[in-house]
Amino acid sequence: MKGRSDAGSIHLWFGDVREIGPEPPTEPAAGLTPFEHQRWSGLQLAEARSRYLRRHMALRTLLGGWLGVAADQVALSWLPSGKPLADHWQDGRRLAISLASREDQLLLAASWGGQLGVDFEPLRPIPDLNSLAQMALHPAEQRFLARRPTAQRARHFLRLWVRKEAVLKAAGVGLNWDPRQVNVLGSTLRRSGVHVRLAAAETANWFVQDLDLAADHLIAVSTDDQRRPVVVQRWPATAGAEAAPATGRRRLGNARSGLPG
Ligand SMILES: CC(C)(COP(=O)(O)OP(=O)(O)OC[C@H]1O[C@@H](n2cnc3c(N)ncnc32)[C@H](O)[C@@H]1OP(=O)(O)O)[C@@H](O)C(=O)NCCC(=O)NCCS
């Protein structure tokens, strides 16, 4: 079975779901979970529904190619919170997955064991940055942002935001947790990742690292333990294409941070 190698690594796919497979059906295909049906039917716009189906078909194609099973054999489920789970196991470790999307772009992460959270944002100007920062950032993060040169603030805000969403997804709480209570600035682990504690009573730390996958996007991945190697998987360009052979993979070196420790 593919996907068995690199135990402990985080595998990442990042690309345009329109490049994978045919046009999505207008109605959910067999194999979608009741949770997905409910989510799909709750979407108002036809475009959003179509994107949801395409994304969730692509998810199965990517994971199936990597695991070496047909797409319809990929066993997924969702917790009521919205956190995705995979019912695939290796040496007693469950396959952890996390995803983020924007329009037709999808970021998918998978690893054996542990918890995972990913997020990405395109680098862009943010006109209402001050009010967004007040709604989304921890007081220490707001002070940090206020000290940055104006021209760099949007990048710093987006960097903090993707770190924050990655941690909240790994923890499975999403934005049900007040993002202003989460400080992802870090203190000592400059450039190699940041330990984050969600609540004072929590004993476990979450760990989040920045990734340089694309120059025009900010990307972060969070785990519930120390930093793990990240393997970038080739994005398949045709329907049912298989994941990259070992030689086609790019292993990321050090995590990069645009923020100080
Ligand atoms: C999780 C959350 C932060 C994602 O934010 P977003 O910027 O809108 O969307 P992203 O593309 O970054 O991430 C969406 C993916 O995160 C995952 N996700 C959703 N809730 C999650 C949670 N609590 N924990 C981990 N992952 C979660 C899902 O797989 C989702 O993709 P899908 O809808 O295609 O299945 C946000 O949706 C949230 O917390 N919402 C509040 C809780 C909520 O409404 N939950 C939905 C219950 S059905």
Write structural notes for this entry.
The structure is a single chain. With 261 residues, this protein is of the alpha+beta class. The protein has a single domain (10-251), classed as Alpha-Beta Complex (Ribosomal Protein L22, Chain A). The protein is 25% helix and 23% strand. It contains 5 helices and 12 strands. It has helices spanning 34-41, 46-67, 129-136, 139-146, 153-170, and strands spanning 10-16, 76-78, 84-86, 89-90, 93-102, 105-112, 116-122, 194-196, 206-211, 217-223, 230-232, 250-251. Strands 4-5-6-1-11-12 form a 6-stranded mixed β-sheet, covered by helices on one side. Strands 7-10-9-8 form a 4-stranded antiparallel β-sheet, covered by helices on one side. Strand 9 (206-211) and strand 10 (217-223) form a beta hairpin. The longest helix has 22 residues, at 46-67. The radius of gyration is 18 Å and the shape is globular. It starts with 9 loop residues before the first strand and ends in a 10-residue tail after the last strand.
Brief characterization of the structure:
The chain has 261 residues and is an alpha+beta fold.
* Structure annotation, total helices: 5
Please report the distance between the alpha carbons of the first and last residues.
40 Å
**CATH-derived architecture:** Alpha-Beta Complex
- Overall SS class: alpha+beta
Bound molecule kinds, no repeats: coenzyme A
Order of helices and strands: EHHEEEEEEHHHEEEEE
CATH superfamily heading: 4'-phosphopantetheinyl transferase domain
What's the level 1 CATH class? Alpha Beta
CATH topology: Ribosomal Protein L22, Chain A
What count of domains describes the coordinates?
Answer: 1
Query: Mind describing the biggest β-sheet?
Result: 6 strands, mixed
What is the typical, i.e. mean, pLDDT? Answer: 86
Give the strand tally: 12
Low-confidence stretches: 239-249, 253-258
Described by the principal axes of the CA atoms, the overall outline is globular
Main sheet: strand order: 4-5-6-1-11-12
The gyration radius over C-alpha positions equals: 18 Å
Percent range of helical residues: 10-25%
Task: Report the portion of residues in β strands.
Answer: 15-25%
